[in-house]
């Protein structure tokens, strides 16, 4: 263990030393400019784009448009919308129950409960977490939960309006849409996101066509072949649904003319980044998450508080990183467009275009 930490320290020290030797001098270019020049001198071209230069420009532009800060704003609105979203999800299950039947809706509910319960150890999940989640979902399944749905959509729209500001800055355009247009666009993207999540969960848990695909193949007596094929295809199909939503965000979010074809590179990057972020969250849960110690009354409260705090912090980090990769996908699209149009002049840390302040 000591040797491993020593190796990490040596590597970190070497990186710091290299950066210090290459940092900006009084009569020399900035470090970012030097890296750009190095990438231009050693091109690796794909689809008429110099990939190293594109990576450098994208990373630099992410800093210029404050991707991490706007991702933090998106995370804030995502977190405060969790409770109304849970109520809205329960209402959605109630609606699905009328479409796919009670059995399939129960399967979706069980999958959600198991996913949330898996964050905590068995005792805490069984005694505390699962009853709360089940109570929320089942209570809202009895009604439409219009109030919760409206609140959830409004808060989620604020999250997407932060994403729109980042995309406008990435394309270096000002926000010329009215406040009402911005609100409607944010609400539309929020509804699209809720529908996308519902479709993804339904695809993974009950299959295509909200379970209708299974009825078709069972009538054709090819259920076994269908199960084998769907076990392979469900994840590519889910990835395709995610890419379509991200393309819609990058297509209609920025206040500039883009095409679906121009938006797919960033959508692929965003989808892959979301997968990596989710994988990292799962790794954390396996390493430092659920455990089943022998608890007594004196340690139960402390253990519950520790698990809840750790899981909440990990969840916040996960949402923040997910927001970063989604915004980075939009920045990537903007840089590809700029390079292909020949407007890839150096701005040496130029500030992004300042958009109109958010007055809502």
Nutshell version of this structure?
With 360 residues, this protein is mainly alpha-helical. Helix content is 77%, strand content 1%.
Explain how this protein is built.
By secondary structure, the protein is mostly helical. The protein has one domain. It is built from 13 helices and two strands. The chain has helices spanning 2-21, 31-41, 51-64, 67-80, 82-100, 102-117, 122-141, 146-170, 179-206, 212-219, 223-252, 260-288, 297-340; strands spanning 45-46, 49-50. A two-stranded antiparallel sheet has the order 1-2. Helix 5 (82-100) runs antiparallel to helix 6 and helix 11 (223-252) crosses helix 12.
Q: What is the count of DSSP helices, taking H or I runs of 4+ residues?
A: 13
Assess the beta-strand content as a share of residues: under 5%
* Share of residues in helices: over 70%
Order of strands, main sheet, comes to: 1-2
Instruction: Write down the overall geometry.
Output: globular
The number of domains is 1
